[in-house]
């Protein structure tokens, strides 16, 4: 049974905590709900946005369409080989709880992705990643509801076009697919992935033997707590911008002017932390009215209370402009802005 509500505040459905209203709002708990929703004029005649945890969205204004909150639940065992196990996970499951469940059951690979806010269905959309791991490394296949046909479709890992914070669901299939279940293939053999600088440094402080998965997971939690604000404490949507990639020639031009510039080398290109560029422009810890730039990490825009979506958007545009003026780089947003 679906129940389409009207004029609903989205304050508790977006991690920025922006108090805007949606004209229509519906929760779907199973594929039959989606089939029923497809028949309604609310769905057919309006703009639609599918949300999970609302942790990567910035609403600028009240939304005059329909918000579809996917609450498909369940984690189901699909079988094992000697080295791996496949789990089918409902799109509405909480990502962090899923990571903890895997570690508890000695299924390895995604422990570095603990504490990433949001739901499992959103993980493939922007190919979430942290500390040297991306969800694509353990994704087996994705099941989605095709809005134009009302049928269920399966896409295997290689068909999802995963890239840095990107996938087919953010491009060709945008507004065409509703992810219903995600299949992950976890490793049964423990192999730590602890080369990321922050994790290595934190482990080196306390560890003298090879850590187990729970220990690594707890270390990641500590690192995140020190740098990234929990949305339950301060409204935010994680990294607001993507880290830009520049070619070799441009990188060396920048390095001459800024010898301390951090980078990750990728073949012939260089990925530069957007946080560094933003900090160099003087934004770290900046506050204006109800919003600002987090004082422990300059890639995080925060809502200190009652910021409007428009205020946060304007701040982000001012940051983009100043980074472009200083470094000649136009930052691309990671967060999806809903106009
Ligand atoms: N830095 C600064 N100032 C700051 C923070 C960082 O100059 O205020 C510089 C430092 O040199 C630091 C470097 O930026 O070494 C990288 O910082 P960090 O390790 O925090 O990673 P990031 O590149 O800012 C990315 C992801 C995060 C993910 C971390 C860890 C993007 C856009 N963001 O951030 O993902 O947790 O790596 O892997 O790629 C998210 O996507 O929402 C997110 C939080």
Written description of the protein model:
- With 339 residues, the chain is α+β, with helices and mostly antiparallel strands.
- It has three domains: 5-70, Uridine Diphospho-n-acetylenolpyruvylglucosamine Reductase, domain 2, CATH 3.30.43.10; 75-187, 2-Layer Sandwich (Uridine Diphospho-n-acetylenolpyruvylglucosamine Reductase, domain 3); 235-338, Uridine Diphospho-n-acetylenolpyruvylglucosamine Reductase, domain 1 (Alpha-Beta Complex), CATH 3.90.78.10.
- The chain is 24% helix and 28% strand.
- It contains eight helices and 20 strands.
- The strands form six sheets. A five-stranded antiparallel beta sheet has the order 6-7-12-10-11, with no helix packed on it. It has a four-stranded mixed beta sheet with strand order 1-2-5-3.
- Strand 17 (287-288) and strand 18 form a beta hairpin.
- Helix 4 (197-206) packs across helix 5.
- Residues 130-131, 198, 227-228, 238-239, 242-243, 262, 273, 275-276, 279, 284, 297-299, 334 line the site of uridine-diphosphate-2(N-acetylglucosaminyl) butyric acid.
Brief descriptors of the model:
Uridine Diphospho-n-acetylenolpyruvylglucosamine Reductase, domain 2; four-stranded mixed beta sheet; globular; Uridine Diphospho-n-acetylenolpyruvylglucosamine Reductase, domain 3; binds uridine-diphosphate-2(N-acetylglucosaminyl) butyric acid; alpha+beta; 339 residues; 8 helices; Uridine Diphospho-n-acetylenolpyruvylglucosamine Reductase, domain 1; 20 strands
């Amino acid at each position: 049974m679906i129940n389409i509500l009207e004029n609903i505040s989205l304050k508790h459905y977006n991690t920025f905590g922006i108090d805007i209203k949606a004209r229509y709002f519906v929760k779907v708990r199973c594929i039959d709900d989606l089939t029923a929703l497809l028949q309604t004029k609310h769905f057919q005649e309006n703009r639609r946005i599918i949300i999970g945890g609302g942790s990567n969205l910035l609403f600028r204004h009240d939304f005059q369409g329909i918000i579809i909150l996917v609450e498909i639940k369940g984690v189901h065992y699909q079988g094992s080989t000697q080295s791996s196990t496949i789990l089918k996970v409902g799109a509405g499951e909480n990502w962090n709880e899923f990571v903890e469940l895997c570690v508890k059951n000695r299924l390895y690979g995604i422990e570095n992705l603990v504490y990433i806010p949001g739901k499992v269905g959103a993980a493939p959309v922007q190919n979430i990643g942290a500390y040297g791991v991306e969800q694509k490394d353990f994704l087996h296949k994705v099941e989605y509801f095709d809005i134009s046909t009302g049928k269920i479709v399966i896409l295997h890992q290689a068909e999802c076009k995963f890239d840095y914070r990107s996938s087919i669901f953010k491009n060709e299939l945008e507004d065409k697919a509703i992810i219903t279940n995600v299949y992950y293939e976890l490793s049964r053999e423990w192999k730590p992935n602890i080369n990321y600088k922050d994790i290595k440094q934190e482990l080196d402080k306390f560890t003298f033997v090879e850590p187990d998965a729970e220990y690594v997971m707890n270390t990641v939690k500590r690192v995140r707590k020190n740098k990234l604000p929990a949305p339950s404490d301060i409204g935010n949507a994680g990294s607001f911008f993507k880290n830009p990639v520049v070619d070799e020639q441009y990188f060396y031009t920048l390095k001459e002017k800024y010898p301390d510039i951090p980078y990750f080398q990728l073949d012939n290109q260089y990925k530069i932390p957007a946080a560094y560029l933003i900090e160099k422009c003087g934004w770290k810890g900046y506050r204006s009215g109800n919003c600002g730039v987090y004082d422990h990490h300059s890639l995080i825009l925060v809502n200190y209370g009652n910021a409007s979506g428009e205020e946060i958007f304007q701040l982000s545009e001012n940051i983009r402009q100043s980074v472009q003026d200083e470094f000649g780089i136009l930052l691309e947003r990671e967060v999806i802005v809903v106009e």
